[in-house]
## 1
Amino acid sequence: MTKRLQPAGAEDRESVTGAGLCVRCAHLQVLRSKTSTFVRCALSDSNDEYARYPPLPVRSCPGFEEWG
Ligand code: SF4
């Protein structure tokens, strides 16, 4: 069974404060392993111009949409 990723919540966002613009973006997804936290861009699922795991910090992004 594949786990469906959800948009990041407030707690997730607090854990990736160094990610730049992604922290405030509606497309942010946060994945965690036992040792690492990954910033994933959900826009990459439908648009090849966006990296699944963007180089951080993101300072400028045309796909940015304010979260919340
Ligand atoms: S659209 Fe841009 S700012 Fe938003 S999560 Fe993706 S890379 Fe980050």
## 2
Amino acid sequence: MGVQKAPARLFYDFDVETHVPADHLLREIDRFLDVDAIRQQLKPYYSHAGRPSIDPELIVRMLVIGYCFGIRSERRLCEEVHLNLAYRWFCRLGLDDKVPDHSTFSKYRHGKFRDSDLLRCISEGLVGGHGFAVDASLIEADVDRMNSSAQKEWDVSAIDPDDAPRAVQEYLDVLDDKAFGASTPVKPKFTSHSDPASQWTAARKGPAIFTYSNNYLIDTDHSVIVDVEATRSIRQAEVGAAQTMIDRTEERFSIRPDWLVADTAYGSAGNLAWLTKKRSIIPFIPLIDKSERKDGTFSRSDFEWDEANDRYICPEGKHLLQSRRNYSDPRRKEPKTGRRRYRATKAICEACPSKSNCCPNTNTRFIGREEHEDARDLARLAARSDFNPKAQAKRKKVEMLFAHPKRILGLGRLRLRGPCGAKDEFTLAAIAQNLRKLAKLRPKTAEMRIAI
Ligand code: SF4
């Protein structure tokens, strides 16, 4: 029977590089992680005097390990990097090199990284594509449900910013931000004391909880996340985040998608008008459409829209107008903004053979037209196209991307508080997902290169 004894040798010739398997995930990720620009970007935030700081690249590499392998605690991350050879190799740490203390992460996160928006910049250069999908997922905030105030009791003006915790200060800072305070004038039913920017919601169909929304804009070819945004968990904020991400992607990567697929939450007339008229993006977005009738009478789609003459033409060929008056002042006849109503005359409809199929209970037929009905018409046209089923199938990819951080990376509940904490966590999770994705795609691209 053998007995394992402590080795007698005091000195070893040891190379970490040779002990990391060739097919280790971190080796693949290392190929795509470009952190050379970090020092340049952070240079203005460092003093030229004093002792040298911990290498910011080391902090970033450790954060990437944490989010790639679902190590949420920074204290545990330091222990794992200390013990794991592959992690040491990825962090460029020798066997004797000291791992930074876990408190360092907090200092970097709330200081230099956040000031320089560093975490978002790392995702640059990862993707290029033309068909995008957007969606949002609720992530539970790190708060106690009981530590909150009802709507009537919550008074923002009573908060002293100088004495408030960091998360409350951040809440005060984003009160005019369209992703948070300015997204809607409606006050939430309850507000958390420890993280007031989180949203009280029952949208998960269970007991109401405080949440943030994780918004992803993805390239549908390879499900690579193009941009990420943290918002309140309400529809207006999520739609605003989608527009912000599309514009930011164009600004940073010079990429504007030809088409965008999303669920009904993004199908408001205002958002469709923004996509189609201001950004020339085809929306594959289902509409909330109540114009289709189910009682067998004519629906609005049976009426033809005549843009040039500002009128509808009914199935009997009659004209439905906003007004039939001849005003002496032509300006009074200018089309109104907002929702418009078009109708035929009572005499025409009463003499019509199709009246029982059109307006059996009223004297004449009315058709309503929303302010951006032309944009809604374009979305209806896209929904009838042959490509729509393929686009909707690609939309599932973004839903699958949300399942991964929750189940594998342990991002079912946030660990950091405040809008900036949520933003950092979502961005790092997205970077980790992108790096894992690229590591998996690499063999495919290699095959493609061989084929070419
Ligand atoms: S009832 Fe009036 S609006 Fe309807 S089909 Fe007949 S003429 Fe046209």
